[in-house]
Amino acid sequence: MKAGSNLEKILTGGGFAVTGELGPPKGADVAVIERKANLLRGNVDAINVTDNQTAIVRMSSIAVSALLIRMGLEPNMQMVCRDRNRIAMQSDIFGAYALGIRNILCLSGDHQKFGNHPMAKNVFDLDSIQLIQTVKKMRDEHKMLGGDEIEGAPQMFIGAAANPFADPFEYRVIRLAKKAAAGVDFIQTQCIYDLDKFERFMQMVRDRGLHEKVHILAGVTPLKSVGMARYMKEKVAGMEVPEEIITRMKSAGKEKAREEGLNICVEQIQRLRQIEGVHGIHLMAIEWEEAVHAIVERAGLLPRPEIK
Amino acid sequence: MIIAEGKPIQDILTMIEGFSKIIVAGCKGCVTVCSTGGEKEVGILASALRLARQVQGKSLEIKEVTLERQCDVEYLEPMREYADQYQAILSLACGAGIQFVAEKFRQHPVLPAVDTKFIGVTEEQGVWTERCQACGDCVLDRTGGICPVSRCSKSIFNGPCGGSKKGKCEIDPEVDCGWQLIYDRLRELGQLAKLETILPVKDWSRSRDGGPRKRIREDLKT
């Protein structure tokens, strides 16, 4: 065991993991976190806590992760390179570990242009791949990036993202290979709607043997409406939604759109489970945490394993 | 070259409020080439300022001058002949030139008439684009001659990130993804294998982050 987190135990034990996601509030209201967390409780093995996603200021991912631990839940703390330099990041990783956080997801971070502080200065002292290297060095060599010995090295289970739908497509597997070489333990992908393209991506992953080096969790997001499907297709960077999905959401009509969204999501999970090298799903029910239980149950992924 | 852009006339009028005699100083270097601060622009700005002040009913005497360069002391010296007769110097040079004038003409407030934007190229007539951030540690040999520091919106070294779509950057569909350009170029060169190597954490101390920089050539010093 590297970190001994639930997530690590399930993945290394050959289980099919389920992770969820919790977007912290735009303020200090703990009740929002408790409400969302309780909807995820018992349905997922670890909960991603986003780090000022889309560059909108929210409660810090470290603080929310610590609150989840207090509630008896396991966080997967996201950390982006946009807002902190290597000094602050390493310091925060020490603090996060001291607070009981054992999973970290290393990300570059969305550019601040579309956030609520577009005039901010960005940092990007490290990029996501260099952050993976840094966390691994801290864990395995007990050394900081600058070379100093660490007193009490944080033992993190290291994650990163992969977007099989960004361009250039042929490069995506190379980037995953770089993340594997940097020392990542698990990967969570961008939301998948185009299963055919994802299968092509996974074939390339297997051709390089990467599925045996890293645990890949396939990202899924239930659609609430045809409008959301169109928005994802047109506005979200690096997202592909096939026309067939849009047609299905449209045909369902307004009344039954959410139900159809759940159906699609469950079908996707069932298909994803059949793909060699997919070791779990990362369920991002964006501002629709109520849907998580039904999806996981209908996908046959309950009960979640009890980890000792 | 260094690319600059003229400040709005209203901002300049605010800056020169209270002065009735000023020098408007252009530069024959980069700002002339990017049509921002050469002789022609000095003339246009001076006329505009005179007109605006006339409308306000206030006089403004302007000495128009375009120096060979404002970043070399020898070319600043000729201004000494008449500087005393003026209250302020409005410079159309880049930020370096403006500051050098301020250092050498200590009795005069020195004011910027332009915003200095970036080190770039003339892509086509009237279009200038950024190419270099002067990071002090060039990696162009590893990136197909395309700079990730200046061409990638996140200045990442192992891109493209997940926000790259159809060759464009997540920040704007008009902005090329720097790493897509690098990918395409390396492919043309048959060097795609270079992308497999993790580019290491950058030494930003060689950039501005290390503090103001200085370069000395002992053999050239007098």
Descriptive notes:
The complex is a heterodimer of chains A (308) and B (222). With 308 residues, chain A is α/β, with parallel strands linked by helices. Chain A has one domain (6-223, 276-298): TIM Barrel (Alpha-Beta Barrel). Chain A is 42% helix and 15% strand. Chain A has 11 helices and 8 strands. In chain A, strand 2, helix 3 and strand 3 (75-80) form a beta-alpha-beta unit. By secondary structure, chain B is α/β, with parallel strands linked by helices. Chain B has helices spanning 9-15, 30-33, 39-56, 73-76, 80-83, 95-104, 148-151, 178-188; strands at 2-6, 21-27, 61-67, 88-91, 110-112, 114-124, 127-132, 168-169, 172-176. A 4-stranded parallel β-sheet of chain B has the order 3-2-4-5, with helices on both faces. In chain B, strands 1-6-7 form a 3-stranded antiparallel β-sheet. In chain B, strand 6 and strand 7 (127-132) form a beta hairpin. The longest helix of chain B has 18 residues, at 39-56. Chain B is elongated and about 65 Å long. Classes of the chains: A alpha/beta (308), B alpha/beta (222). Chain A binds chain B through residues 81-82, 86, 108-111, 113-114, 122, 124-130, 133-134, 145, 161-163, 166-168, 171, 174-175, 177-178, 181-182, 190, 237-238, and chain B through 153-167, 169-172, 177, 180, 183, 195-196, 198, 200-202, 204.
Estimate the helix proportion of chain A, in percent. 40-55%
Q: What's the rounded overall pLDDT mean of chain A? A: 96
Percent helix of chain B: 25-40%
Sheet with the most strands: spatial strand order of chain A: 1-2-3-4-5-6-7-8
The biggest beta sheet of chain A is recorded as: 8 strands, parallel, barrel
Distance between the termini of chain A: 14 Å
Structural class of chain A: alpha/beta
Interface with most residues: A-B, 36 and 29 residues
- Briefly note the structural class of the backbone of chain B: alpha/beta
Order of helices and strands of chain A: HEHEHEHEHEHEHEHHHEH
Number of strands of chain B: 9
What is the architecture of chain A at the second tier of CATH? Alpha-Beta Barrel
Q: How many structurally independent domains of chain A?
A: 1
